[in-house]
Design brief:
This protein is mostly helical. Helices cover about 80% and strands about 0% of the residues. It contains nine helices and no strands. The radius of gyration is 17 Å and the shape is elongated. The relative contact order is 0.08.
């Protein structure tokens, strides 16, 4: 695989991401797939999964994240995303293990997300002490994270 192919794959990934952010999911899917054909990356599989999630295709999203993990088991995003998708499906027990793995990942820039999502798991399963801990950890890592602030406030109102 030459540098030219790798560069081309990354350019397609960036273009796909722009379409995804613009809500043009079918075009994003097509471009992510073209990127993956040229050079498979954990990022492209993860973002393709994210696009499937926006389309309501949670099982497909999870499958793409598992492909990302096969390519790069140290990349934290797909573990967190699988956990979030399982939360959407109401599978809190299944979500917990994926989110804990996200926290152990070596290549991850957003550890506040799995902390927040673990807080959601523990809130749903009425483990309020654990929920508070993870919401607080999310805010420690990202003090302006509005969803974690709202969740912590909701938790405080609930247990008063």
């Amino acid at each position: 695989m030459g540098a030219e192919e790798l560069q081309s794959a990354w350019e397609l990934l960036k273009e796909a991401y722009q379409y995804q952010m613009g809500g043009e999911y079918d075009m994003a899917v097509e471009l992510y797939k073209r990127s993956l054909e040229i050079h498979p990356t954990a990022e492209a599989y993860t973002f393709l999964g994210w696009t499937y999630r926006f389309q309501g295709r949670l099982d497909d999203a999870i499958a793409e994240c598992k492909k990302a993990i096969q390519i790069d088991p140290e990349f934290g995003n797909p573990y967190n995303d699988i956990g979030a998708y399982l939360i959407e499906k109401g599978d809190y027990d299944g979500a917990e293990s994926w989110l804990l793995r996200a926290l152990q990942s070596k290549r991850y820039e957003s550890y506040h997300y799995p902390h927040y999502n673990l807080g959601r798991v523990y809130m749903a399963t009425e483990q309020f002490g654990k929920a508070r801990h993870h919401f607080e950890q999310a805010l420690k890592l990202s003090p302006d994270y509005a969803l974690a602030k709202e969740a912590l406030e909701k938790l405080r109102r609930k247990i008063q």
